[in-house]
Amino acid sequence: MGGSAGPATAIARTMHPASARMTAANRRRAAAAALVLPLVAFLAAAFYLPLAYTVIQSVTSSPAGGFTLTQYWTFLSNRQSQGVLVLTLFLSFAATLVSLLLSLPLALALRRGFAGKGIVQFLMMVPITIPSLVGALGLLILYDRTGWLNYFLVRTLHVISQPLTIDYTIPGIVLFYVWMFFPYGGLVIMSGLGALDPSLEEAGRVLGASPWRTFRLVVLPLLRPSLWAGSVMVFLQCFGAFSVPLIAGGNYQPLAVKIYTVATVFLDWHQASAMAVIMGLIQAALVVLYRRLDSRPSRRAA
Question: What are residue 132's phi and psi, to 5 degrees?
């Protein structure tokens, strides 16, 4: 009795090592699936199902409910809708360009350090901490014709005689976009600069290159991924902005505000869904383009 082993023990002793490893791998896969399952369920309930419903709404007609692409054709062929799309792209590109031109010099200055660096970094983070609706209202008050900026320029400094018109204008919307979304690109660029090896710049200067040449031939190519990533983040934020143009846009309504108007005012959910799908496709195409450009090695590095 003492020397005999049970059936389970005998099977375990004769089991092939590969089978044992396979069983352990299956257990790890099951554990990983159990951990991922709540996330997948959340994404399905909060994102994929609403997205699928939006797509279905965009390709069905209101009376009959059959498949149709009329909503897309109506939007893309309408001159006013084309103007809305062009306005949205222009505002996003303009704000992204201005943000990039501000972020890069500021990131370079913060990298070197100066008196008040912590204050500048704190002020740079403020727009991220403020809700977009509150920030838009604050900017609207600040840049109004009777706001603090015009009061300071007209009545205090006497620099101009007439108040500046900033609110409800295209330059005003771009200015608001830059203030609200500039930190997203700036933080990415600052992170990219912080990851660069200073010895590469020192090597360029030792070889006789000027600071500008070192920056152009060494720093800028290495910083390209961060510049792309920061620009894409700012553009996506601007392209999908809702609170800022809703409050401070006036007659200039970008795509997000137009979708809201069509859905809630005109109650045309099919048309609004088609516009939302077009908006999502443009954003997805931009992300795909960014990934392709970012994964392609530069000629100079090659």
Answer: -60, -35
Domain topology for 70-295: MetI-like fold (1.10.3720)
Per-residue pLDDT reduced to its tens digit, 7-34: 555 444 555 555 666 687 777 888 788 8
For the beta carbon of residue 191, count every other beta carbon within 10 angstroms: 13
Q: Which residues contact 197 (CB under 8 A, 6 or more apart)?
A: none
> Hey, what long-range contacts does 195-204 have (CB within 8 A, 24 or more apart)?
196/222, 196/223
| DSSP secondary structure letter of residue 67 | B
Please give the structure tokens belonging to residue 217: 């031939």
Closest CA to 148 of 170, 130, 166, 134: 166
Residues in the chain: 302
Structure tokens at 189: 């660029």
- How far apart are alpha carbons 202 and 270 in whole angstroms? 60
**What is the Cα–Cα distance from 185 to 232, expressed in whole angstroms?**
8
User: What pTM value is reported for the model?
Assistant: 0.81
List the structure tokens of 176: 């608001």
- Helix boundaries (H) for 48-116: 49-58, 70-77, 79-112
Mean local confidence (pLDDT), 278-299: 80
Computed from CA positions of residues 95, 98, 100, 103, in that sequence, does the dihedral angle turn out positive or negative?
negative
What is the spatial distance between Cα 240 and Cα 265, in angstroms, rounded to a whole number?
A: 20
Half-sphere exposure of 161 (CA within 13 A, CB side): 0
Structure tokens that stand for 263 in this block: 């859905």
Proportion of the chain in helix, strand, coil states, percent, rounded to 5: 75, 0, 25
